[in-house]
Write a structure and sequence with these properties.
single chain; 3 helices; Rossmann fold
């Protein structure tokens, strides 16, 4: 069953994403980042080219010819699923294929609208019997 983790009270969702992506890469874990739209995909793409400040996190889109070899996939298209280890959902709704992944990560900001959408996703997963772990990043240096 998919392990689900909610990272809550996050002041900067994309910075937290970069931190999680760097940790996954260091552990040789493959990650797919599902964004809500092409604009966010581009924004994450640019950020991963500059994070960390002395390097970059190798990534590409799901349809790129090197996707099977690339540890981080960033796309607003849910198909094809290239890696099935970790899915980071930046979308307002629960992704349809989340159960194909070993782990699902939800990053929840301080914004009340974002928190309300996350609560709905939390209930969706809980009502289907998934165990959910919550990581409160309030006051954390990398939140």
């Amino acid at each position: 069953m998919t392990q689900i983790d909610f990272y809550v009270h996050v002041s900067n969702k994309l910075q937290t994403l970069c931190t999680l992506a760097a940790k996954a890469l260091a552990r040789d874990v493959r990650m797919m980042v599902l964004t809500p739209d092409a604009e966010t995909t581009e924004q994450v793409d640019r950020l991963l080219w500059s994070q960390p400040s002395i390097g970059f996190l190798p990534h590409c889109r799901a349809h790129h010819r090197l996707a099977p070899l690339t540890p981080i996939i960033v796309d607003h298209l849910a198909d094809p699923v290239v890696h099935e280890q970790v899915l980071v959902n930046l979308c307002p709704d629960s992704p349809a294929a989340f159960s194909r992944f070993e782990r699902l990560i939800e990053i929840v900001s301080l914004d009340e609208a974002d928190r309300n959408l996350a609560r709905a996703r939390f209930r969706f997963y809980r009502d289907r019997g998934y165990e959910i772990r919550t990581h409160d990043l309030a006051g954390s240096a990398w939140a």
